[in-house]
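Form 12-C: Joint structure prediction
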Amino acid sequence: MPGIEKTAPRRAASAGRSSKLGLPGPAFALILIAPCLLLSVAVIGYPIFDVIRMSLFDVSRTGVVREFAGLANFAKAFADPVFLQAARQTVIWTVCVVGGTLLVSVPIALILNEDFYGRTIARTIVLLPWAISLAMTAVVWRYVVNGDFGTLNMTLAALGLPFENYPWLADARMAFLIEILIGILVSVPFTVTILLGGLTSIPESLYEASAIDGAASTKSFYYITLPLLWPFMQIALVLNVIYVFNSFPIIWIMTNGGPANRTDILITYVYKQAFAFGKLGNAAAGSMVMFAILLVFALVYLFLTKSQGARNDD
Amino acid sequence: MTKAKKSLVCWALLSPFLLVVLFPYATMLSTSLKQKDEIFTFNRTWLPRELYLGNFAELLFEKGFGRALANSLAISIGATVLSLAVAIPAAYALTRMRVPAKGALTNYLLITQMISPIVLIVGLFRMFAYFGLVNSLLSVIIAHSAFFMAFAVWMLQSYFATIPKDLEEAAWIDGAGRFSAFVRVFLPLCLPGIVVTAIFTFVNSWNEYAMSLTLLRQVSQQTAPVQIAFLTGTLYQIEWHLIMAATLLASVPVAIVFASIQRYLIGGMALGGVK
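Section 2 - Result
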């Protein structure tokens, strides 16, 4: 009994303390969130404002913002054939990498969800590309496919195939294809992780029930696995579109957008405009176009997760 | 089908992909142990002539790659500490307290996570230039924290939500203040989640390329990935044996650490339901 007598006054005391400090719940919660929000608004919010401003003003090479230019920067960007070419290539890049990633990831996730010997090792290897800097991956692959000294041609030649000195990156189409394949390779780990998360959340009892009802395993795949995995596939799709659309190091390091801008995508175009040619207004206009597209994808993602969250919470 | 048979089928089906994943590692390992004349020759083989470690020594002592590794380490530790310092209180408030405009806040954080820094790189560069922070490691630490923090908040939130509230409340009843309950009861329980988040942030920061490339303009300040890419840009014969040694040094330790948290990542994704 002394226990109760002891705790009651303390509880009252602690309630008194917090009100004395003048920190009611919501205000205190905001104080806890403030540093996080401040950092984000300063480092992400301000540059957004600055890029919007630069895209609408005439900006000198050194970055001095001069008079208001309306949409002149945008008009200039859209009149630039390289910009249009980069935009087209961005669509090809994004569609191919994301589509390829899902096509490869779904079977891999299904296999890794099975119970087999050495599964942990297999999972670790599959996730490995995620651990490595995209920049370093790009450097290593640039060497792998190097025509004269690379290990790919060395291996193919050793197998008796006629690729002795084949310069993989010299032809724009082949170079872009290789970049797309590497883009798929580095996107698979993240996608498989999401899908595995989804697969492990499917209760085993569903399969047992359908087995008892005499359903074949292909049937339970179509009627249980796929529908329950579908929301995760949607999320993986949208997140991958966002990441791949933004992806910079692979193309920048392997081909720098060349030969003849034929592997440029919007992000490498913008970077070149800003840091190689000093056309800051152009770069800002290009950035704004990308930003607007990204915002649309982000909203799609929010919508997807919200509608799913609502379903899960019921 | 027996488990052994099934295992064989699974490995066989996975093998093409595994081969592609491991090919670059084999390349790194093989090339970094070779001497220069073994690379620029007609009769090249996978196996190096001998276990030659001179490339690593040359890289660290003559090419100053140790400096790049140190820069990367400083930035990654700084960014991890700063992001966790702001993310832990925020995640705690979001899971445990009534926060005004909570939905708008989480949405804002989610959207920042999707904006690539490169889209804003011009603005970022100008801002840090204004404060005189270009060519200072601090600029990259701040930039990394801002961009990686949202993910940290999200991961921490999903771990925090699994800790039963009763334990903290019991501590309050026993007379502990909210803060001491947080430090003595709550934090130790979430330690695994915090460690995984820290490792993930560290790896992200260690691997980041575009911001480090843009904000640090001097060779002495380059991070490991930037310096490695920089070494491929020489006008003369590219010294692949050194570059592969560098990628091996910069990636293998991180890959091992990352592999150790792999289990928790899949668990975390399932926990959070990718919200």
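Section 3 - Comments
Chain B has one domain: 22-272. Residues 240-272 of chain B form the longest helix (33 residues).
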